[in-house]
Design goal:
ligase; binds adenosine-5'-diphosphate; EC 6.1.1.2; two-stranded parallel ribbon; binds tryptophan; Trp-tRNA-ligase; Trp-tRNA_synthetase; 5 strands; Tyrosyl-Transfer RNA Synthetase
């Protein structure tokens, strides 16, 4: 098999929003259409457990992320699409990799450091407050996800680049220790022109700021959200700067270049904010109406998603168990 392996995961920690679509779902859907690559796309549900302890939410978000990914173009027949928790081999490898991870490497990992920094800023005495071992060893489980499928390329946002580098380090330590090429060395694939999508208040759209527009939301709610986007106080007829407008930035992400140009002209001519919002809503509605129907259908039939997960798990476990046979042999655990 000479095809390069491409793999990525999404953590089901919320109902996906437009930022997740443009920053994570859309680029991976494009990559998944490249026939020269063998694609593994999965829902990192056990990673979500580091922070999400509500069982119903974890279950719902897992279905919502899967349904969104498929509705927006990921074809589960042409890639391996699965749930992390359905591949027990990943957790076995995670332990083995933990035995190769210097503790200091985890101290430097970004997910952990972010919490330490927050504690510092809050004047908290215990800098490790709120850190569970799942969060602390998060990069090891992520390395297991990546290495078990012998991934060459891992498309991720810039914030995850360090975790892919850790996976590469661990693969090298392991290969060197056993003088064997057990693991492929992975590389992060960063979308350099990846835009940061602004949210309702103009800051980065993020569920932690509560300023998101969910991708799949009923049309009347979508319209209400679009009308909540913050604008300045300039009046109809006053020229407006498209670049500093959240409405314009969202519009540009979905529109054809010539329509974007025409919209920018409207700004210069002093479009009323109400009309700009109406135009953005209409564009979102048209762009999402097809995927919306597919999404609804999948969410209404979780048994169909379960079938897709089961089919993906079988293919994923086939590859994972082959890697694990070599790993076990290398370390001296043979059955
Ligand atoms: P959130 O900030 O809402 O918690 P996550 O951190 O779970 O979102 O992000 C999941 C993925 O979506 C990541 O790959 C991230 O790069 C992408 N993403 C999230 N928000 C945005 C945004 N506002 N613009 C672009 N990409 C984003
Ligand atoms: N940690 C990634 C995130 O928070 C999700 C993830 C888990 C992942 N395992 C992965 C991404 C393996 C790429 C490869 O976005």
């Amino acid at each position: 098999m000479d095809q390069k392996v491409i793999l990525t995961g999404i953590k089901p920690t919320g109902n996906p929003h437009l930022g997740n679509w443009v920053g994570a779902i859309r680029p991976t859907v494009e990559l998944s259409r490249d026939p020269a690559k063998h694609g593994f796309y999965f829902i990192a549900d056990y990673h979500a457990l580091t922070g999400l302890k509500d069982a119903a939410e974890l279950r719902d978000y897992t279905y919502q992320v899967a349904a969104s990914w498929i509705a927006l173009g990921l074809d589960p027949e042409s890639v391996v699409f699965y749930r992390q928790s359905d591949v027990p081999e990943v957790f076995e490898l995670s332990w083995i990799l933990a035995c190769f991870s210097p503790k200091g490497l985890m101290n430097r990992a970004h997910a952990y450091k972010a919490v330490v920094q927050k504690n510092q800023e809050a004047g908290e005495e215990d800098l490790d407050a709120g850190v569970n071992m799942g969060l602390y060893t998060y990069p090891i489980l992520m390395a297991a996800d990546i290495l078990i499928m012998q991934s060459h390329w891992v498309p991720v946002g810039r914030d995850q680049q360090q975790h892919v580098e850790i996976a590469r380090d661990l693969a090298q330590y392991f290969n060197r220790q056993y003088r064997a090429e057990v693991f492929t060395l992975p590389e992060a694939l960063i979308d350099e022109k990846g835009a940061v999508i602004p949210g309702l208040d103009g800051r980065k759209m993020s569920k932690s700021y509560g300023n998101t527009i969910p991708i799949f939301t009923p049309p009347d709610q979508l319209r209400k959200l679009v009308f909540r986007i913050a604008t300045d106080s300039s009046r109809p007829g006053e020229p407006k700067d498209p670049e500093s407008s959240t409405i314009f930035q969202l519009y540009r992400l979905l529109a054809k270049p010539e329509d974007t140009e025409a919209f920018a002209d409207e700004y210069r001519k002093g479009i009323a904010w109400k009309d700009a919002k109406e135009a953005l809503y209409a564009l979102l509605e048209t762009t999402l109406s097809g995927p919306w129907a597919r999404y609804q259908d999948l969410i209404a039939h979780p048994e169909e998603l379960d079938r897709i997960f089961a089919q993906g798990a079988e293919k994923a476990r086939d590859v994972a168990s082959r890697t694990m046979r070599e790993v076990r042999r290398a370390v001296g655990i043979s059955h």
